Amino acid sequence: MRERQRVVLYGNSLVLAGVGASLKAYPGLEVISLDIPPAAMPQELGALCPTVVIFDLGSIPPEFPFSLLRQQPDLVLIGLDAAGDRLLLLSGQQARALTTDDLVKVIETLPEALGSKGGDTMDI
Fold it and tell me: Which of 38, 42, 44, 90 is closest to 66 using CA atoms?
């Protein structure tokens, strides 16, 4: 039996409430909503060990996702932009690039790793 993926919805926007209600229909996901101050997030996430954190881009400070990834680079962050019908995928995963060839390999695998062709966006 596959382990359920833990998804944290951060914030209390109407967008997140709708997304949360939809995601709860998927049995492979455990959806947890958090509405706590940004300073408390790293400790709370450390206790919850989520796979993904989803947040509304319009309701958080711009530096928040980058600060969170610096503290917990294994997280995958998904920022939702309801006004633009788009999402922003952020990951703290790193690859070591020792040569230009290494860098090119990383660039070439990005579309495959993200599940899309370069330059494509995902509508929500």
Answer: 90
